[in-house]
Amino acid sequence: MSEPERQKKQAWEEGGPERLYVLTSGRQPAERQAPLDMVTLIVSRGEAGPGMQPELAAIVRICDYPLSVAELSAYLHLPVSVVTVLLTELLASNHVEARASVPAKSLPDIELLEAVMHGLQNL
Amino acid sequence: MDYRISEPVVGPRGEDILPASVTTAVKVVIVGGFGVGKTTLVGSVSEIRPLTTEEIMTQAGAGVDDLAGVERKSETTVAMDFGRITLNDELVLYVFGTPGQQRFWFLWNGLFEGALGAVVLIDTRRLEDSFDVMGRLEERGVPFIVAINAFPDAPSYPVSELRQALDIPDQVPVIDCDARERGSSRDGLLTLMRYLHTLTTTTAEPR
C-alpha cells in the first residue's frame, strides 16, 4: 500500500471524528434524559430488526444478558461517549432497557455497603 | 486503537456472562500515577479478563502532550482498564483504573459521579504523583483510602511519615497492598468499604 493510502486508511480506522460523526449521525447525547453511567446495565428487550444499523444491532444482540455501558464500549471498540449516543437511540425505540445504577448520593446506603462487603469477603 | 465496524462484535465469553437477575451495579475507582499498579490491581481482583474502555480526548493535552511532528492530531484516546466482581445474584461491582495525571481529569466527570469511593494507589518512589489526586478527590467529596503498593525496590516509610508527607487526613485509612495478590487487592477494597461504612454511620457529625 502506498504511503498516502496507508495514512488515509489509518485516519479512518483510528476513530477520527469523521467516522464517529457518521456512526452517531451527528447526534449528541440527550442531556435531558436520565444520564447513562459507565455502569448502567443494559438489557435487550427483543431481537435486532432487519436493516438496523450494524452497531445498534450488535448492541441488541450482545445485551441478551445484562452488560454495563463500559463493557459495551470495550466489546464494540467504541468510545463511551459514542456508545452513549447509540444507546440513547435504542432506549428511545424500546429495543433495550437500562437498569438504573445506584443514584449518586453523598454517601451510599448502609445496606448496600454491607452487601458489597459481604460479597467481597466471599471471594 | 482502531474502532472496527466490519468485524462481528464479540460479546462476553460464556463464563463471563452476568446473571440475568443482576439489577444493581456499583463502582469504585482506582486512581494513581502512571505505572503505579492500577491495571495490576484491577486484573488481580477481577473475575473477568480486564477490559479496556476508551474515551476521546480533544486538545486536552494541549501544552502538555508533545505534539511535535503530529500537529494535525487533534484528538487522542485515553484508556481505562476495568474489571468486574459479581457480589451476589443482584449486585455487581465494577473496578475502574484511571490515570491520575492532571491532563486526564476531564475523565473524572463521568467516572466519579456515583462512585462509592476511590482507592489511591501509591508508589513510594513517586509520592508526588498522588498529591494532586487526593486534593482533587477531596474537592469533589469522593471518599478515598490510600494503598501503598509494595514494590520490592521501593523505599519503605512509616505510615505516620507518609501521612505527614502527603498531608493525608487522620481518618483516612492508609494500608499496604500488593496489587499482584488477589487477597491483598480484595482487602484494599474491603478497607474502603469499611471506611465508607464508618463515614455513613457517623454522617450526623460534621466532617
Can you give a write-up of this model?
The complex is a heterodimer of chains A (123) and B (207). Chain A contains 6 helices and 3 strands. Chain A has 123 residues and is mostly helical. In chain A, strands 2-1-3 form a 3-stranded antiparallel β-sheet. With 207 residues, chain B is an alpha/beta fold. Chain B has 5 helices and 7 strands. A 7-stranded mixed β-sheet of chain B has the order 2-3-4-1-5-6-7, with helices on both faces. Classes of the chains: A mainly alpha (123), B alpha/beta (207). At the A-B interface, helix 2, helix 3, strand 2, helix 4 and helix 6 of A face strand 1, strand 2, strand 3, strand 4 and helix 5 of B.
In order across it, which strands form the biggest sheet of chain A? Answer: 2-1-3
The mean pLDDT of chain B is 84
Task: Give a quick account of the main beta sheet of chain B: strands, pairing sense, barrel closure.
Answer: 7 strands, mixed
Radius of gyration of chain B: 18 Å
C-alpha Rg of chain A, in Å?
Answer: 18 Å
Count of strand segments of chain B:
7
- Poorly predicted regions of chain A are none
- How would a crystallographer describe the biggest sheet of chain A? 3 strands, antiparallel
Oligomer: heterodimer
Helix content of chain B: 25-40%
Question: First CA to last CA of chain B: what distance?
Answer: 44 Å
β content of chain B, as a range? 25-35%
| Range of helix content of chain A | 40-55%
Question: Overall mean pLDDT score of chain A?
Answer: 81
Secondary-structure blueprint:
The complex is a heterodimer of chains A (123) and B (207).
Chain A lengths: L2 H11 L3 H7 L17 E4 L9 H9 L4 E2 H8 L3 H13 L3 E4 L10 H12 L2
Antiparallel strand pairs in A: 1-2, 1-3
Chain B lengths: L23 E9 L5 H8 L5 E8 L16 E12 L4 E9 L8 H4 L5 E6 L5 H13 L3 E6 L9 H8 L7 E4 L4 H20 L6
Parallel strand pairs in B: 1-4, 1-5, 5-6, 6-7
Antiparallel strand pairs in B: 2-3, 3-4
Helix pairs in contact in B: 1-5
